[in-house]
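Task: complex structure prediction.
Instruction: return structure tokens for all chains below.
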Amino acid sequence: MSAAQYFLRRTFISIIVFFGVSIVIFCLARLIPGDPARIALGPFATKEMVEQLRETLHLNESIFIQYKIFIVNFFQGDLGISTYTKRPVIIDVISYFPATFELVLMAGTLMLLIGIPLGILSGKYKDTFIDHIARIISLLGVVTPSFLWAIILMLLFAYLIPIFPVHERMDETLDPPKIVTGLLLIDSLLEGNFRVFGDAFSHLILPGFALALPAIGNVARLTRTNLSDVYEKQYIEFAKSYSYSEFKIATKYAFKPASIPTVTIIGLDFAFMLGNAFLVEIVFVWPGLAKYGVEVILAKDLNGIVATALIITTFFLIINMFVDFIVLLLNPRIILQD
Amino acid sequence: MYNKLLKIEDLELSFKMYEGISYVLKKINLDLNKGEKVALVGESGSGKSVTTKLILGLLNQKNVTKKGKILFNDKNILNLSQNEFKKIRGNNISIIFQDPIAALNPVFKIKDQFYEVNLNHKRMSKKDSFIRACNALEKVSIRDPERILESYPFQLSGGLAQRVVITMAMINKPELLLADEPSTALDVTIQNQALDLMDDLTKETNTAVLLITHNMGVVRKFAEKVYVIYRGVIVEEGTKKQLFNNPGHPYTKALLESIPKLSGDGLPTHNDNPPDYASIPKFTH
Amino acid sequence: MNIFKTKYFYKYSRNPLSVIGLVIVTTVILLALFAPYITPFPEHVGPFTDFYNKSKPPSWEYIFGTDKIGRDIFTRVIFGYRISLTLGVVVLSIAVPIGVAMGLCAGYIGRKTELILMRITDIFLAIPALVLALSIIGLLDRPNLFYTMIAVSMAWWPWYTRLVYNITRSIKTEGYIAAAEIMGASKLHIMFREILPNCLPSLLTKITLDLGFVILVGSSLSFLGLGAQPPTPDLGTMVAKGASFLPDTWWFSLFPGFAILIVVLGFNLVGDGLKDMFDVDV
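Output:
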């Protein structure tokens, strides 16, 4: 099948999965014990007020109708009103999502920029001193919870050696740039405002690292394994017997086949980081979707919870499709083999 | 002495393992003249593949002890550095492996792999490499070489892939071709094609061939001289005629008896207690 | 049979890291099991206050220092290990059987069963583990350890399904399976007596690694306030409570944090050692 066909098929599956996820989350939300309307209004609300809210939230209808309403509204951009912030959830999402997005992008970049080279070094110089150091770093990255990294980094680089700031995305005394993408780094560059860029960057570094370190460790370890597995393969032996340059083998002929399973793992690590964003955002008081998510969970805000979970999952599905596409580019077998 | 292209003298190889030391090759002696076709016959685990790896310096395991000499054009190449091997590989000595599809990188096109081999000859552009490869493939009656060069290895059949690999191996006109079970992975009907191709190309360039196999039928078709190896020891050597007409060592006899014949009483019955072939001294014609 | 003399143990012990991992894990398990007998202040685990000794830095008497209400952190950390290990064991006891059963069925029975089961698995895999666990817990009325365990299990089983599914599919066409089918073995027999044993090395390795990761995720959840409730000592909760008092009373958060690190490290090293020993890929 052709690339287009494969792509369509993947998109179709992703859409099905999206609906499946929405159903799962939706049902979970409706299964909680207790009356969401009452919880939202508090113990002092009257029966009429609760009943009125139930009507507004369509809580008395059957679950199928509720779901239908939910989906229809979702695609119209209406995610309901948050009982926590008292605003339309969509507004909440738009205001908080960019912060998380920027954080995850930063962490993702770090993961690739540091994790992959570390893994290649490790794999190429297997069982040497370099390999051992790299493996220790990777291992520590993987086994340490993100929130612990957040605390350690904060202690080291914000308190002990005060280089970086501790809270929020930007210094309060500076004016934020005009919001184009919502990403401070991009927006400030677009304005040519380097002072804000530098400030935003320094705010991003510590949380970015705290989020990225487990993923860096994972990517490094997997790149190492995949690379050394490939080096065992016969086509590399063949390459060596025909005097392919060592450098070319490492960067091209061994790297390309090894990168295929690695790219898949990178996709999974993005999911991992999306999930862990919660922890880092709390420690660094980062005004992102994850922090919002935790707050709505603690406040039992139905619409907020459902929307947050769905948005994050959608984000993850998109990343996965992107990853699949890259794998397609790397591995011709998928489309050419019947 | 200077006629001999390859002379292996008293070659010994051992690995250190959990259970103790494993002696893989015990004093192997083997020689090859220019343009000669020699078969090294033995069963799995006899040490024949390892010998080819040693010739090209492809053995990279730790806890390995090597003794003896491998003289190629009178130069001992047993302990060369990897850099020094680079000049020989793909140039003076080429190698073919058993599974042609596994030997080719699955995510690169055939033309890219030809390019790297061509670079051993001299620096050239990718375009020139493509032309050179095309010509080589056409010369061996492989039709539609452009399409093949633009393909990926998994798109070729086993037989075709092996013929492509053989062409690749011979494109730089090496003095010695090492063929490690080149036909074993192929269908019986295709085996002939691959072997014929090897025959034609090596005759043309007077390339010596060291053919590793466990298939006596292949030996009969292809080899001039035969060495029989059993558990790291050469147990018999001789010309093809001598071996097939008058096998001396009992192991050689057993090998010959196991060739399926189209007539006669069928395969010999299984011997539950074969004699210790290794302890029976070498038979030389 | 002396286990220390087998080929497996030899291969395993070639790697010093794996041995260290085993030592760590054994130590943690022993500490947790005998916690009441070996800790200096076991009564600090329940409702206890000693404001005279509050917020004391690490000393000979209080090895990890005391917390805001005077409880010995060292004791609480050791007891915290009990919670962590329990979490790991319970979560996997739920997730593994479910996941394995689904994987076997999907892989071997195939057709519609495979389609449905694997789509469900895909859906659960599409939700990042922490998000799913958070959603589940957050929607229950009062967070506690039990709910946490259920939630994490729900997020974990799909990985076992996928692992077993892949292995099943790759050995489905093997000769001994066909032989069993011809001899009239029931599907159940084939799945559990022929296919499952082949999955054991991968399963054992993954379970060991996951014990560490479940503890990691569990501690993340308790960090957010959704785990065991006070006064029960839970490592994640301890880190969270101590976070607001950084950097002055750093020992509130750091020691429980490192305790988490150590136990996850231990399981990870053992898991890696098993991976090398069995030569599998999870």
